[in-house]
Amino acid sequence: MTATAIDEAARRERPRRAGFALSERQSWGLLFVAPYLAIFVGFVLFPVGFSFWLARSPRLYVELANDPIFLRTVINTFVFLVVAINVKMALALFLSGFFTHRRWWVKVLAVLFVLPWAVPSIPTILSVRFMLNPEWGVINQLIFQLTAEDGPNWLNDPTLALALSMLVHIWKSLPFWTLILLAGRLAIPHELYEAASVDGAGAWHRFRYITWPSMSTLYITCTLLSMIFTVGDFNSVYLLTGGGPADLTHVLATLGIRYLRLDQVGLAMASIVCALPLVLPLVYFMMKRLSR
Amino acid sequence: MSPRKLLRNIGLEAGLLLIGIPVLLWTLIPIYHMFLFAISPKDAAFSGQLWPTNPTLRNFEIVFGQKHHFLNHFWLQMFNSLIISIGTAAITLFVATAAAFAISRLRMKGGRLVMNMALLTYFIPAAFLAVPMYKTMGMYGLLNNDWALVLAMATIASPYAIWILRQASDKLPVELDEAAMIDGASPFQLFRMIYLPLMVPSLIAVGTYALLLAWNEYLYAFLLLSKDTAITLPVALGNFLSADDSPWELLMTAGFLYALPPAAIYYAFRKYMSSGLTAGAVKG
Fold first, then answer.
1. What letter would DSSP give residue A154?
2. How far apart are the C-alpha atoms of A283 and A274, rounded to whole Å?
3. What is the band of B52 on the pLDDT scale with cuts at 50, 70, 90?
4. Domain shared by B229 and B137, yes or no
5. pTM of the predicted model as reported, rounded to 2 decimal places
């Protein structure tokens, strides 16, 4: 057989073989992806689609707008997101710098520091809740011993209670974001800092001209991601205040569940639909950033 | 060392301590307070003590012996938590490993679409998805069934798992697959003999992630399960809040026991967790 004949045969055969291989690959691919597709359709696509259909009536939105709790909830959610997340991320950025220092005790502290994130929410948040108990809690008993006056009724004041929920949220999720930002800091080439030291740059200049430019993208991604997660943070508010006093500390995450518990699924979904203008741009942005 | 440099070094150390000590207190106080309750009798716990004045193991005895009506099913509820966590980890691993293989190694058509669907799911705030999930679990007749929580948690854990596994899998050289294909390996053999063994570190990270997610979950557990014998431990702990005169020292004891396994697992698998889980986030 001549070389041209082999070539000829290969040319004739290749498209058919490749086509066959491709379709076999494709059907194996579908088989492997099928379990996830089943979960997605059964527990995301259908439930979400069905719930949107339940929330289609405009009457629900009128009812929602007339519920005085709703406006308060929207404001609370907004305050929670803006204040808690920015404080948390700024602290995480600062502490990630602290944890780059090489000391034995900083290493030990880094291990302990992760505890709030590593242990479940419910026992620790309830522990904080009892610390804040006006009569029996350790905080007010200390205040009484030191000043002979009664401390504030922490969780009975809506402003204080919401602020304390934010603190609990920060306590719980600060370690995670600090670790992420720490990994980002450690990825910056060390030579940059050495060169800056030679040039006599101080701590602020090193941060301003080396750390921040290398970290700003990561920092902003983390902030947006944290926003999405925090919109869904039910535990920090529910376990500390239960939405009280008088339903004044609800956020959208707890309000939806409250309606659900009152068997008002339509209202629950409507309140979530109202959050979409806030959530969807964030999701769109994150999708563009992460799906490559 | 010149006096000026010495002074600067002392200043730095003092500054570090000035940050480190408040961070230590801030981190440990709620956990210490929980532990303090667990080893104190009720009157001591409620007296605002700062350290154990009258330490006792009586609370642990009551919890282990289920000698309080809030804790009648403590061991069963702990067992429920365990089964549901293991089930979630198993299903998540199965679903996510297969999907990541199809997307990353087989490069199937539509793989990108599947990845985007998963990412979109990952970005639905958990408390928002809970409402539709509760409604449909009712329609499927799964309420009060362990499977409801296992499937819900696997739904939430899979997207992130697929994303992490796909990234790890993309790093494996393509030549491996090509060589195996030339030797006549089917995609399934490729999956079992090449892909799975090389992915073990990421599989450990993802499995641990799913396990901890399910063990720690409160919201979905309390929506989907309500029977005393079906609920997981966090729901049982939440039920303590329904009474005004709750035995908080027992709540904190049970909570302490409930918090131990995830903390231990986290520290045991920390190496895998931090390399596997932060890599993805840093890259984004």
1. G
2. 15
3. confident
4. yes
5. 0.89
Residue B283 pLDDT greater than 60, yes or no:
no
To the nearest whole angstrom, how far is the Cα of A247 from the nearest Cα of chain B?
17
Are residues B208 and B118 part of one domain?
A: yes
CA angle A119, A124, A129 (to 5 degrees): 165
Instruction: For A251-286, write each residue's pLDDT tens digit.
Output: 999 999 999 988 888 899 999 998 888 889 988 888
Distant-in-sequence, close-in-space partners of B264: CB < 8 Å, separation ≥ 6: none
Q: Residue range A223-242: average pLDDT?
A: 90
Cβ–Cβ gap B123/A130 under 8 Å: no
pLDDT tens per residue across span A51-75: 889 888 888 999 888 888 999 999 9
Tally the C-alpha atoms within 13 A of residue B279's C-alpha that lie toward its C-beta.
Answer: 18
Collapse the DSSP code of B55 into the 3-class scheme (helix H, G, I; strand E, B; otherwise coil) and give the result.
coil
With CB atoms and an 8 Å threshold, state whether A221 touches B114.
no
Distance set, CA A114 to CA A66, A271, B185 (Å): 43, 34, 44
- Tell me, what amino acid is at B149? L
Higher pLDDT, A39 or B270: A39
In the 8-state DSSP scheme, what is residue B243?
S
Tell me the two tokens of residue B101.
């293989």
3-class state of residue B238 by DSSP: helix
Q: Tell me the shortest Cα–Cα distance from A273 to chain B, in angstroms.
A: 9
**Residues B257, B128 share a domain:** yes
Q: What is the ipTM of this complex?
A: 0.89
Cβ separation A291–B112 shorter than 8 A: yes
Which residue in B46, B116, B248 is closest to A291 by CB distance?
Answer: B116
Answer for the pair B220, B6: CB distance below 8 angstroms, yes or no. no
Distances in Å between the Cα of A211 and the Cα atoms of A94, A186, A203, A205, B235 are: 11, 10, 10, 9, 44
Q: What per-residue confidence (pLDDT) applies to B86?
A: 96
Domain total in chain A: 2
Q: How many domains does chain B have?
A: 2
